[in-house]
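REQUEST FORM: STRUCTURE PREDICTION
Request ID: SP-0412
Submitted by: Lab K.M.
Chain count: 1
Length (residues): 82
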Amino acid sequence: MPFSSIKKGWTAGPPPAWIARFPFALNSAKFIPALFALYSYSVATWLYPAVLVVANGGVSRMLAVRRWRVRVSQRPFAPTIK
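STATUS: Completed
RESULT:
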């Protein structure tokens, strides 16, 4: 099923431990130098690495925010997150 990591990462409970955000962040970071290493800039050459940087960075950020929100909501006397 497509987007299973995104779907499972933003469920009612905490994200599963096997969905680590580090591989997504690393995959996003490895394409940043690839953008600068391009010989010629055209839509055909820079669009794919740019989309990977944005998509993987977004999933990594989503997992980080979700884990933070779950951790904050489980604290005693935690402020209510709406």
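NOTES: Residues 53 and 67 are 21 Å apart (CA to CA).
Reviewed by: T.R.
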